[in-house]
Design goal:
single chain, 477 residues, alpha/beta, Rossmann fold, 3 domains, 6-stranded mixed sheet, two-stranded antiparallel sheet, 21 helices, elongated
């Protein structure tokens, strides 16, 4: 924008602000331009979300009356305003309301909350004001002309003229509209604050990946999202709340011994001694047993007998069992298991297992992704009720990891079949015995790879939270 265009624009805005109900003391010494981004944002939101077209001075006053502290708002209110007398009366009536003081205590100093309150105020005010926009403008011009023609300077006299021009019924309806608009702003503010505090409380209790981990929540938990889709906002908060509940629940109910469970494996470390049950363990024979070979004929014979009968003592090797979790994040997981969100229950298990066993977590729908805790939270904040599920990437990842000392747990509510090649490879890998599946309604068991797991007793069906917890204990048992 050129300097001349910029000057023209500012002159236009400045002329519009002449109709403001407030004196320049409302700016507290800052240039008026400082506040205009917030004012124009309020105006844009009201236009785009409610199809209501407030004037620049109306958006300005609505934002400033909630953004500035009550005392400053009160003393900055003009005694009268001949340029926009009807609007001045509306603002004056709104500020008189006790609820306005209550709202202002919350919103003062917060551009976010002031924008929310200003939007709700304008939205509800213009929906309830008597007469249509064209008639209101006409009446305001008429009142303004009378005030100027009669050179009215007394606010009380100006009020009498406004009431006379409007008529008693429309004047009462105008006052009621201002009162209701303040009440609606208060209600919206309360709902937003309660929901956001609940969401922030849940986030504080969940692992977010360290500093900056809450960055992804800005959009999903913003005022803009609340204004655009309050029901979806509340849904996100509910998903977070239940994720926190089930993180705490699984943290206390998961078996404490699982992280210490040992699985015999030649690749593991030494954890004790025992009988040598295979000739492949000759290198692990204890030195005291090997000493028999270097002794006399009798000790060598004893060694041969013990070797043949597998009575030699050898070092035992084992590795700790490591669980790996695969969670379906398709849109259907936003539905409920009983009366709680499926994805929240699964997320709570993932957080608890990550904390307790350092378990790797994967999320999958049509693709598979290894995730960190903050990625799970991001899923809770973005999951939509659409999208499919594809099991092949999960089975391929299990085979890629390939460790039979690991435990692979899959949680899904709507799986698909695996192609013949993947199923054959999975069967031959021997990992089906180490793969556990927890099915949530409406998932079906009618797939070859599910039937393969059932042969090992590795499929559990959970129709409610109690069954889900039982299935988890069974999988880890």
């Amino acid at each position: 924008m050129s300097e001349s265009e910029k000057t023209k624009d500012e002159v236009f805005i400045r002329s519009g602000l002449a109709k403001s109900s407030f004196r320049e003391t409302i700016y507290e010494g800052l240039p008026w331009q400082y506040y205009m981004p917030y004012v124009t944002e309020t105006q844009k939101l009201t236009r785009s979300l409610s199809n209501i077209l407030p004037r620049i001075y109306q958006s300005h006053d609505a934002f400033m009356m909630f953004y500035k502290p009550y005392e400053l708002v009160y003393i900055s209110l003009k005694k009268m305003n001949k340029a926009a007398p009807l609007w001045h009366s509306i603002v004056s009536e709104a500020i008189k309301e006790e609820k306005f003081y209550d709202v202002n205590k919350f919103t003062a100093g917060s551009s976010e909350l002031a924008t929310l309150a200003a939007y709700q105020f304008l939205r509800n005010l213009f929906r309830k004001l008597p007469l249509n926009e064209k008639l209101r403008d006409s009446i305001q011009r008429r009142i303004s002309s009378e005030l100027k023609a009669k050179n009215i300077t007394d606010p009380q006299k100006a009020q009498e003229i406004i009431q006379e021009v409007l008529g008693s019924s429309d004047w009462k309806a105008t006052k009621d509209s201002a009162k209701d608009a303040v009440a609606s702003a208060f209600q919206a503010l309360q709902e937003y604050k309660e929901a956001k505090e609940e969401a922030e409380g849940a986030l504080a209790a969940l692992p977010t990946g360290g500093p900056g981990g809450l960055g992804f929540a800005k959009e999903a938990l913003s005022v803009l999202h609340f204004l655009q889709n309050p029901d979806d906002y509340r849904k996100r908060v509910r998903l977070l709340k239940y994720a926190r509940v089930f993180t705490a629940r699984f943290s206390t109910t998961l078996p404490t011994s699982f992280s210490h469970e040992q699985l015999a494996s030649p690749a593991g470390g030494v954890y004790g001694v025992g009988r040598m049950n295979s000739h492949t363990k000759l290198s692990d024979i204890l030195p005291s047993e090997l000493a028999l070979v270097t002794g006399n004929q009798l000790t060598r014979a004893l060694f041969a007998v013990k070797l043949a009968s597998q009575q030699l003592t050898a070092y035992q090797h084992a590795t700790a069992v490591k669980p790996i979790l695969f969670i379906d994040k398709s849109g259907s997981m936003a539905g409920t298991l009983g009366d709680v969100p499926k994805i929240s229950v699964a997320a709570g298990l993932a957080f608890a297992m990550h904390r307790k066993f350092d378990a790797p977590v994967y999320l999958f729908d049509t693709e598979l992704t290894a995730v960190k805790p903050k990625d799970i939270i991001n899923t809770l904040l973005t999951i939509e009720a659409d999208g499919g599920t594809y099991i092949v990437p999960v089975l391929k990842e299990i085979m890629r990891i390939g460790k039979k000392e690991y435990l692979y747990i899959i949680i899904s509510d709507g799986i698909t079949s695996a192609d013949d090649f993947t199923l054959k490879d999975f069967r031959n890998s021997g990992l089906a015995s180490r793969t556990k599946l927890i099915l949530i309604p409406p998932a079906s068991e009618d797939y070859d790879w599910v039937q393969l797991l059932k042969q090992y007793g590795n499929v559990q069906y959970a129709e409610d939270v109690a069954q889900f917890e039982k299935a988890v204990k069974s999988a880890l048992g």
